[in-house]
Design brief:
Layout lengths: L8 H5 L4 H12 L10 H14 L3 H13 L4 H15 L1 H20 L1
Helix pairs in contact: 3-4, 3-5, 4-6, 5-6
């Protein structure tokens, strides 16, 4: 049995907002994420922290998975969320913890 291919969230918006997706692909992921000043792992930690602090749960799913792919452990992701509970609020951290739990459990199934 073959696994269904994961849909890139950007693909759902490509026809609707093509310039936004083009800038995301070429500037954000093609340039900013490729700069030599920080490792991809560090960029992932920073991005995840920003998304948790801003309570951007829709974006957390993809970036939490990317963080794990970039070498961030599940324990480190949980610690990041726990640490931010004191800076960005308990409800924000609890929401992020639910997303992280789902992402990490999905990763274990693969």
């Amino acid at each position: 049995m073959t696994k269904p291919t994961a849909v890139n969230p950007r693909d759902r918006l490509r026809a609707f907002a093509p310039k936004l997706i083009e800038l995301t692909d070429e500037v954000l992921f093609g340039d900013v994420w490729e700069r030599p000043g920080l490792s991809k792992r560090d960029r992932s930690l920073i991005t995840c922290a920003a998304l948790v602090a801003l309570n951007r749960t829709e974006q957390q799913r993809g970036h939490f998975a990317r963080a794990v792919a970039n070498g961030v452990t599940g324990d480190e992701l949980v610690e990041l969320i726990t640490h931010l509970a004191f800076y960005s609020g308990w409800p924000t951290a609890m929401s992020a913890a639910h997303v992280a739990k789902e992402v990490l459990e999905e990763g274990e199934k693969k």
